[in-house]
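Researcher: Quick one. four chains, 294 residues in total.
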Amino acid sequence: MDYNELINVLSNKGLKRTPQRVAVLEALYEIKNHPSAEEVRQKLYSRYPSIAIGTIYNILDTFCEQGIIKKVKTDSDFVRYDVDMERHHHIYCENCNHIEDYHDPELDELLKNYFEKKCIPNFQIQDFNLQIIARYVKHQNKPNQNK
Amino acid sequence: MDYNELINVLSNKGLKRTPQRVAVLEALYEIKNHPSAEEVRQKLYSRYPSIAIGTIYNILDTFCEQGIIKKVKTDSDFVRYDVDMERHHHIYCENCNHIEDYHDPELDELLKNYFEKKCIPNFQIQDFNLQIIARYVKHQNKPNQNK
DNA sequence: TCCTATTCAGGAATTATTCTTGTTTAATTA
DNA sequence: TAATTAAACAAGAATAATTCCTGAATAGGA
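Model:
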C-alpha cells in the first residue's frame, strides 16, 4: 500500500494527515499478524524512533472508532489489532500466540442462513465471528495426512 | 450448589479444600455473568472481607489449569471467567458489557460436520467457539418483532 | 500567511495482574 | 491426637499495559 492509498484511508474518514498516523497505518498494513501497540512501536522504530507510545495508543483508538481497524479478542493481557476489515474468522494457535486469519464465505453464508431461521430471543444479531482453536501442524512437502 | 458439591469439585481435581477456594468457587457459581477477579472479590466481600486480591488471582488461575473454569476472551483490559464448562458460545451485547451464554447443540453439530468436510491446511482443529455480537432488544410482554 | 482546533511528546498516573516473603494451614502420617 | 511438611495464603511491593495530563507543535482552513 503506497503513500497515496494510506492518506486516502485517512481523508476518507475525515482524519488529519499527520506523519504519525500515516506511519502507524503503514506499519499496520506491513505487519500481517495482529500486532499489539508495542509491536507497532517496534515496527515503526527505525523510521520513527521519536513517536510516543501514548500517541500510538491514541491513534489506534482513533482508527478503531473510525472503523479502519478492529480490536481482536484474546486471553492475554494486552490488546491486539487487525487491519483486515472484511468479514473473517480467526484461528488461535494453541502452541504459540499466533492468530491466523480465516476467510470462508461459504461458512459465513451457512451461519447467516442458520441464524436467519433460528432467532435468538431478545437479541438482534449484528455480527458473528468464529474462533477456531487449533494446533499448528507442519506438513511434509508432499501433502499427506501425517504429523 | 451446596457445600458438599463445592468440595467435591475441588477434591475431584486434587485440590486442597481451603476456605478461600470454597468461597471463590461458590461466588463463581452464584455470579452468573462472567465475572472478573474484582467482581469475585466484591461478591465475596460480605462473607470474606479479608481475602487478598492476589489470592483470588491465584485461585482463578488454578481453577483454569484444572479445567474448573475458563477465561473468556473480550476486548476489554481485564480478564473475565466462565464456570460453564459445557460447549457453548457467547453473545456479546453491543450496548453494555454483558456476555450471555448461548447453548446450541444443533449449531455445534453443524460446525463439526462443516469442518470435518472442510479441513484447514496446516491446522488441526481442537475446538471452536462462536462470538455473536448482538444488540439487546427488550420485548413487549407479547412476543412480537418490534423494538 | 495566519489562526485555531486538533494532535503530539513526554512523563506522570492508573489499573489489572504478578511476584515476593514470611506466616499459616490442610492433609498426611506417626 | 499430635507432629510434619508441602501447599496455600496475606500483605504489599513490583510490573506492565494503558490512560491521562499539560504544554508545545502542526495540519488544514480562512
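Residues 142-147 of chain A have pLDDT under 50 and may be disordered.
Researcher: Thanks, that's what I needed.
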